[in-house]
Amino acid sequence: MKKQLLKVAATAAFLGAVTVAAQAQNIAIVNGQPVPKARMDALTQQLTAAGRPVTPEMEPALKEEIIMREVFMQAARSKGLDKTDDFKAQVELARQAILIRQLFADYSKANPVTDAQIQAEYDKFAAANGGKEYKVRHILVETEDQAKKVIADLKKGGKFEDIAKKQSKDPGSAANGGDLDWATPSSFVPEFSEAMVKLDKGQMTQAPIKSQFGWHIIRVDDVRQAKLPTMAELKPQIAQQLQQQQLQKYQEDLRAKAKVE
């Protein structure tokens, strides 16, 4: 008898330990259905990845969210909504999206952008945007004759800023007396840049400059050495851009290799 009692007690203790272990793996039991803690962990990771880290104060609300989802899912299943063709199609689309996202994440992890790649990209940026910056004004008109008249008026003593406000067709600069602020030559169309870089500080084009926008009269107010952001400042942006380029090429390669009939 004593042995039987000890056996029953041991069994009860074992079952109790199993129950405690099971409870540790679930955040709740809803209508007899366990709600695994893994769901809460997954949602926590999802929020953190989206830039919304979960604090201890947020955990009760997050737990309630998981429980409510289980309640709603059970209600949907009781109506047979999980058996409909529309539901199955949406689940398949979601499954595809998750799997594809995992594929791209795996590729990016296995093919990180190197510091050498980032440096090379920054060097190209510096070469294209280095050199001189120009503080420039212009007056944009529709015809060559109008441009020649503006130049004549300026030579007679007309004020560049006043004429720009009254006659320039460039809405972005006319109100500011034709001011285009500081910019590198690569910021403008080639015809404009070629004429601008030939001018010294205080000089104006002596003949109209034609571009796709119309006819320009250009004046350089100042010149300075270009001030570029450092490589450290641009590194995150360059790394992201290169990663996107690599991922785009990976996608294109996969599509090119696929046998589609």
Describe the structure in your own words.
With 261 residues, this protein is α+β, with helices and mostly antiparallel strands. The chain has a domain at 131-225: Chitinase A, domain 3 (Roll). It is built from 9 helices and 6 strands. The strands form 2 sheets. A 4-stranded antiparallel sheet has the order 4-3-6-5. Strands 1-2 form a two-stranded antiparallel ribbon. β1 (26-30) and β2 form a beta hairpin. The chain is elongated, with a radius of gyration of 34 Å. The model is unreliable at 8-22 (pLDDT under 50). Residues 1-24 form the signal peptide. It comes from Variovorax dokdonensis. GO terms for molecular function: peptidyl-prolyl cis-trans isomerase activity. Residues 131-222 form the PpiC domain. Belongs to the PpiC/parvulin rotamase family.
In short:
By secondary structure, the protein is an alpha+beta fold. The chain has helices at residues 2-25, 37-49, 59-78, 85-110, 115-129, 144-155, 160-167, 190-196, 231-257; strands at residues 26-30, 33-36, 132-141, 179-183, 209-211, 214-225. The chain has a domain at 131-225: Chitinase A, domain 3, CATH 3.10.50.
